[in-house]
Amino acid sequence: MGWLSPDQPPASHSLLQSPVTEMGRLTLDQPPASLSLLQSPLTEMVRLTLDQPPASLSLLQSPVTEMGRLTLDQPPASLSLLQSPLTEMVRLTLDQPPASLSLLQSPVTEMGRLTLDQPPASLSLLQSPLTEMVRLTLDQPPASLSEILHITFLNSH
């Protein structure tokens, strides 16, 4: 049950260069200058919450596995997040869509979930396969639905 909740970020988050395991949670009200946080895997119920996006989200250069969750209240300028696979119950939640959703250039596998409250301008999301129970949830539909494998609209009921 580790919990780190600084009101202001430190200059460097070299905190997580070794694994944070077993219910670790990191909450930042402001993003640090550099989020090279996840250079080692975060495993077993790790959650990272940012109220504001960092300038660069090269966070996930190593896999986040086993119930990792990343929550952003605002989208980052660049979502090159998923350059490594997110596996085993990973969830990415954005309250606003990013300008570009080239998120899924690597597969999100095994119950990956992407939640957007508003649709992106372009859903070229699925340039690589989403496999094994991947779910994309949009509160509002996108302009084009030509590319979606699995989609759920929360306002369609």
Keywords:
disordered N terminus, 0% helix, 8-stranded parallel sheet, disordered C terminus, 22% strand, mainly beta, globular, 11 strands, 3-stranded parallel sheet, 157 residues
What does this structure look like?
- By secondary structure, the chain is mainly β.
- The protein has one domain.
- 0% of the residues lie in helices and 22% in strands.
- The chain has strands at 3-4, 25-28, 47-50, 69-72, 86-87, 91-94, 108-109, 113-116, 130-131, 135-138, 151-153.
- The strands form two sheets. Strands 1-2-3-4-6-8-10-11 form an eight-stranded parallel beta sheet, with no helix packed on it. A three-stranded parallel beta sheet has the order 5-7-9, with no helix packed on it.
- Mean pLDDT is 40; it is low at 1-48, 50-69, 72-91, 94-113 and 116-157.
Separate helix tally: 0
**Which percent range fits the helix content?**
under 10%
User: Count of DSSP E strands?
Assistant: 11
Q: What is the CA-based Rg, rounded?
A: 15 Å
Report the end-to-end length measured between terminal Cα atoms. Answer: 37 Å
Strand fraction: 15-25%
Total tally of structural domains: 1
The helix/strand series, from N terminus to C terminus, equals EEEEEEEEEEE
- Categorize the overall geometry: globular
Uncertain parts: 1-48, 50-69, 72-91, 94-113, 116-157
Order of strands in the sheet with the most strands? 1-2-3-4-6-8-10-11
- Mean pLDDT rating: 40
Q: What summary fits the major beta sheet?
A: 8 strands, parallel
Content-based structural category: mainly beta
